[in-house]
Specification:
Helix content is 54%, strand content 20%. By secondary structure, it is an alpha+beta fold. A five-stranded antiparallel beta sheet has the order 3-2-1-4-5, with helices on one face. Strand 4 and strand 5 form a beta hairpin. Helix 2 crosses helix 3, helix 7 packs across helix 8 and helix 8 packs across helix 9. It is globular, with a radius of gyration of 17 Å.
């Protein structure tokens, strides 16, 4: 599972970054907020990514930081919001703005985004309000765990790519950590986490 890429900015434009990693060019889909943080063409950058796999779709998304990636995961967990619409939303609102509008229940701010209708905006508020309230704590847990185990992010990303929601992946990993069972290879840890998720 790909967590991040380290390479040279080959080309960048609205919605797209071409990153040269040891001679191999990766096409990454990005938000405008991410685009604005990128260095100049020819400069090195390390960027967080998420590989989206569905049937005949294989897209690689990149994010300016972990907050943006976490927000992306939350958005695509909402019925009716796919990764491309999630990217549109994150191009208009940074994670902090999105969180504020969700918690405040600001329908007008959400429906002002192209592609987000009233029904979708209501679903976002209903399904994400509590998650956004607790996201800071979840991120804090992630940061602490990552200091001790670099496989943590890879495990959660792999579980999300398998169709589980981010908070489900986090909960499964937390259970393994509490039982002091978050060890072994990446594949072994994923199998252990899946046992919790399938029960």
């Amino acid at each position: 599972m790909i967590d991040h890429l380290n390479g040279i900015v080959k080309r960048k434009s609205e919605g797209v970054l071409i990153l040269d990693v040891n001679g191999l060019g990766y096409k990454l889909l990005i938000s405008n907020n991410c685009l604005n943080t990128l260095p100049l063409v020819g400069k090195k950058v390390e960027i967080l990514v998420f590989l989206y796999v569905r049937e005949n779709i294989l897209d690689l998304y990149a994010f300016k930081d972990r907050n943006e990636r976490e927000s992306f995961f939350l958005l695509i967990s909402v019925n009716g919001i796919g990764p491309k619409l999630a990217l549109v939303i994150l191009s208009k609102l940074d994670p902090l703005e999105l969180k504020k509008h969700i918690i405040d229940g600001s329908l007008s701010s959400l429906t002002a985004i192209n592609g987000v209708g009233l029904k979708t905006a209501k679903r976002m508020i209903i399904e994400l309000k509590e998650k956004f309230i607790s996201i800071d704590d979840a991120l804090g847990i992630d940061d602490e765990i990552q200091k001790n185990n670099p496989l943590y992010e890879n495990v959660t990303s792999a579980l999300v790519s398998l169709g589980f929601k981010k908070h489900q992946a986090v909960n499964a990993c937390e259970k393994l950590i509490k039982k002091d069972d978050f060890n072994g290879s990446l594949e072994q840890i994923i199998k252990k986490a899946l046992k919790y998720l399938m029960n």
